[in-house]
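[Discussion] Sanity-checking designs against the backbone

I'm trying to build intuition for which residues belong where. Below is a structure token string of 147 positions. I'd appreciate it if someone posts a full sequence so I can compare it with mine line by line.
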């Protein structure tokens, strides 16, 4: 068994429509056409629980571009979750979702970024796998945080 694991099973969602690979889209000026990912999410990220995790993307295309994030098929409430941060530079087309302290029980799963404008829509996704932190490290961290 892999030392990386998912948290508790979640209800199965309808299969997501696969994103078109960025390399198959025709080259267009950054200010025209449907959104295009210049930087996509990795297929998989493996980290130790309680670590920080970044999900950076870079998007070009005709503005305005609306960017949304989902977790296991459900919209992410970035503002309502103190464990999430979001960095945006619309001029540069960079967007970064940040999990400040990944939890084995609630953060393992599929993160999807969707970019949409008047000319189209494209998505990229990442499967976040979390490794359980060894118990002795957890205890030392708890002791350290008490002081």
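Best answer:
Here's mine. Compare freely.
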């Amino acid at each position: 068994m892999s030392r990386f694991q998912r948290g508790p099973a979640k209800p199965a969602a309808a299969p997501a429509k696969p994103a078109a690979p960025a390399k198959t889209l025709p080259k267009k000026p950054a200010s025209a056409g449907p959104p295009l990912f210049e930087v996509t999410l990795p297929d998989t990220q493996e980290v130790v629980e309680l670590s920080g995790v970044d999900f950076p993307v870079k998007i070009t295309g005709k503005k305005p571009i609306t960017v949304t994030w989902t977790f296991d098929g459900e919209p992410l409430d970035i503002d309502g979750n103190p464990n999430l941060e979001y960095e945006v530079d619309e001029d540069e087309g960079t967007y970064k979702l940040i999990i400040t302290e990944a939890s084995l029980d609630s953060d393992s799963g599929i993160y999807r970024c969707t970019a949409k404008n008047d000319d189209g829509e494209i998505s990229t996704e990442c499967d976040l796998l979390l490794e359980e932190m060894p118990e002795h490290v957890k205890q030392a961290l708890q002791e350290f945080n008490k002081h």
